[in-house]
């Protein structure tokens, strides 16, 4: 197989996810990540032979850490993607359509658009709106094909270890403006991702909670959104095109799923 031959020649793999651990940043609209040890090795020798085991309980929202949005995540005027009634769809405690289990695994071409590099800065300012023009200029001579995944770097993940700064409730957060979302949708991509908590730009003021790109991408074009990506190493290596690999958990009826996406390039 050609893929196996490529691997044998040598590839470099970039992990694009953040670690899942207690105390990590989470949007107030989600249950934060918590892990607790239920059984420790010192608790009990279950076999009487010296063999022990340990296990943990994990509780988390489905949009915590690096995650992908399912199509049931957003609605408008009572409807989900495809005109599905949003209230009927989730009767019974989980979504009957468009849940996380329907997100197909992705092995496709990826493109990184590094907006701080374009602007000559290390990190975008709080509330900076990434426009269609920014994305086009960052793309340059590179072509986006139908079915690609486009990842957008703001540099905001540099603040990830400071929850208040990363969430930006008192400052705003850079992100994609509506014109940028429409431009991405016009390319027919499979998914779009960013290194922020909400993908959309967050500007202080009356429109702070509005997420137009979520509507443009998820609701009207069935394009998945990936959030809280770590794109720093990929950017430092000046990688712009790569093989993108992602698979979500089969969380039946969930509105999103934790993921561990990878970018693969020739070594």
From TrEMBL:
<protein>
    <recommendedName>
        <fullName>Cyclase</fullName>
    </recommendedName>
</protein>
<dbReference type="Pfam" id="PF04199">
    <property type="entry name" value="Cyclase"/>
</dbReference>
<dbReference type="InterPro" id="IPR037175">
    <property type="entry name" value="KFase_sf"/>
</dbReference>
<dbReference type="GO" id="GO:0004061">
    <property type="term" value="F:arylformamidase activity"/>
</dbReference>
<comment type="similarity">
    <text>Belongs to the Cyclase 1 superfamily.</text>
</comment>
<dbReference type="GO" id="GO:0019441">
    <property type="term" value="P:L-tryptophan catabolic process to kynurenine"/>
</dbReference>
<dbReference type="InterPro" id="IPR007325">
    <property type="entry name" value="KFase/CYL"/>
</dbReference>
